[in-house]
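2024-03-11 09:14:02 INFO receiving multi-entity request
2024-03-11 09:14:02 INFO entity count = two
2024-03-11 09:14:03 INFO echoing inputs for audit
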Amino acid sequence: MPAGPATARRRPFGTLRQGIRDLTSRGRLIRYLVAADLKRSHADTIVGRAWWILDPLLQMIIYWILFTLIFQRTTPDFPLFLFSAILPWKWLASTLGDASTSISSRVAIVRQVQFPKLVLPAASVGAGINGFGFGLIALAFFLVPYHDRVSPWILTLPLIAAVQVVFIFALAIGISALNAFYRDVGNLLGHALRLWFYLSPALYSLESLPPGWVRTILSLNPMAPILDSYRRIIWGTDEVPHGVAPDFAALGIVLVVSLLLSVLVIVGFKRAEPAFARIL
Amino acid sequence: MSGAEPAILVRGLGVRYNLTLTRRTTLKSTLARLGRRSGAPGARYFWALKNLDLTVQHGEIVGLIGPNGAGKSTLLLALAGILEPSTGSIVVDGRVSTLLTLGAGFDADLTGIENIRLAGAFLGIDGKKLEALTPGIIAFADIGDFIDAQVKTYSLGMKARLGFSIATSIAPDILLLDEVLGTGDQEFRAKSQLRIRELMTQAKAIVMVTHDLTYVTEFCNRALLLEQGRLVYDGAPDDTVALYRERVTKKTLLAAGTSGRFEGATP
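2024-03-11 09:21:47 INFO inference complete, emitting structure
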């Protein structure tokens, strides 16, 4: 980290409060940035915003071909099993990718206007939420042929999504700042996300793994209870062929951890903020 | 005291760049440095400004002149609050508007109107107030139907006009300008000069960086000469410009002399 300015450092609590005020007082700026992002994405394509829905569908079809035709997976309603986890994973991956360049790609504005830089990764998080919303439309279509699996538990989806938002927010803020200092972070991110994806219960469920230390370690991954909960309410479990209750306890732990992480990351971000204009 | 508060009060300002953390920084170089833990940290810093004192009153138009790398732009960035002082303090009384490089912060995929909204939001201007200012901004920029076209279709001049119009329309108390008055065609130049004079009469403080010395003598009522991060002279525009010209001439003569081409140098 760079040597900080010689000005007196605020207490962590004041820094946190300042960071939160940065976000709440600049809601309009965040909205504009999200809208600009929406307008830009797929603006030069033929089907336009339909890509938001096509993207996860195509990805799911690829995995479905791979697993049912080549690996001969016999999981019932496997496409829905896959889709229930790929959709939230895509949300995480695309938001973090976006956030990593949210500061480093805006050299001109960072160097010319004094504004709270927290709004930049926050806008990435907002754009990601939008994308996930489109994905849910794809999910709704998808559920038609699998309507047998639908249960009232699917209404708890916003709760799981809320936990995931906090988790994504913390990571997005941290990655945006780190990538402003070290461009390696952006390069590493793609590979790290791919490894993380395979270690997360997206293409498989943790229950299908033999009990042992590997399973124990993999279950410590914060994305494990999140993906597992989506799958439980959308697809069900190996024993129950329809939506069941999410893992509330595990989600609660992820929420608490994500909130603590957010606090740490906001304070760290505010400390690093004055350096952005100098190093970009 | 009331009414006599300076617009800008700078004391002992120093701005230091950390040369080891430039955009080329990679984790590897930082880790290598941490591993070495070598001494002499002073060698890795560059003081763009050192121990600068400056008081600007409302209504003053201050020209900043000096050679490239003298710290002029750094001083503007520090006054704008974009760079934090490494030493010393800056107190600014009022809203600051920066016009550092016109339109460089625009989002090329958005239209002119959308960029006005976005720029206003970046500058922290209240939504309703900006909505009220927008017709005036559009009228002054005077770029016709292009205001509804994406900014990527704009010429440099059009971008500059829109940028200038935004920055000067938000009624800043303090306006910081960096090499921007020369942009646009003759007509827009005349218009922007008029706008600057208007802001002057409203007792706004303006600090501008320019290499156009005639601009300094014509426009400013005070000029500062910066060299290598230090304030060399502070006085009337004519005196400062004369001193700068003298020093530049001396330097070129010296350089020409040492390279042995003094005899053949054109006057």
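2024-03-11 09:21:48 INFO post-check: The interface with chain A takes residues 17-18, 21-23, 25-28, 30, 77, 80-87, 96, 98, 100-101, 104-105, 107, 109-110, 114, 117-118, 121-124, 127 of chain B (CB under 8 Å).
2024-03-11 09:21:48 INFO post-check: The longest helix of chain B spans residues 237-258.
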